[in-house]
Design goal:
By secondary structure, the protein is mostly helical. The chain is built from 8 helices and 2 strands. It has a two-stranded antiparallel ribbon. A hairpin with a 2-residue loop joins strand 1 (43-46) and strand 2. The chain is globular and about 65 Å long.
Length: 209
């Protein structure tokens, strides 16, 4: 039920890895939410489409928002569509909620650097040694398959770089994890292409006439 919160903590670099880009983390957070909704039967998959379950109240502000965000009109949206729609701005939303709940220390700060940096730089969240951090650390150090697979999709390796063991995961969960990996890859490729195009434009602009 806390997969997205745990992933946010892992993804912002507090366990020694580098923080990831905001957009990629937002996509993975949307995937983490969907995995938890599947776990409590607030949603199910019909092929690659997200079928809503009963409108449950889960006692978690962000997950309750996720339940409310489910498309309840047929044909239901695909997992990919869910990731892009629900994921918009989701990393910033989790930062605000965790800060408001006292799960993070310090004042508001630029949570994500424009470029990836090593942990401990301005990109780190400065997360306190709270119960939330300890729970995330336990899942991370034990290489819990869902959290580990989502982190790997973001390029984060832990515990010596072992691969996440997805052998015993539900088929629907594996479908979500695969969609997260594809979406993150797509977004990263788009960003890199834009950076190359911008660099080429800058070179042309600065070239002597």
């Amino acid at each position: 039920m806390d997969t997205a919160r745990d992933l946010f903590i892992v993804g912002t670099g507090v366990f020694g890895d580098r923080p990831v880009e905001r957009g990629e983390l937002s996509l993975a957070l949307a995937g983490a939410e969907l995995v938890d909704l599947l776990g409590v039967r607030a949603a199910s998959l019909e092929g690659e489409r997200v079928a809503p379950g009963p409108p449950l109240s889960l006692g978690d502000r962000m997950l309750d928002q996720a339940v409310s965000a489910l498309n309840r009109t047929e044909p239901y949206e695909t997992v990919e569509d869910w990731l892009w729609r629900r994921g918009k701005g989701l990393a910033a939303a989790y930062a605000d909620v965790l800060d408001a709940e006292g799960r993070l220390t310090g004042g508001r700060r630029p949570w994500f650097p424009r470029r990836r940096r090593t942990a401990g730089t301005a990109g780190s969240t400065g997360t306190a040694d709270t119960e939330a951090r300890r729970r995330a650390a336990d899942r991370w150090e034990s290489r819990e398959p869902v959290l580990a697979a989502l982190a790997e999709a973001l390029g984060i390796q832990g515990g010596g770089g072992e691969q996440a063991d997805e052998e015993f995961l539900d088929e629907a969960v594996v479908t979500v994890l695969a969609a997260v990996g594809d979406a993150v890859t797509e977004l990263t490729a788009v960003r890199q292409r834009r950076e190359i195009e911008n660099a080429a434009f800058d070179n042309i602009w600065r070239a002597p006439g």
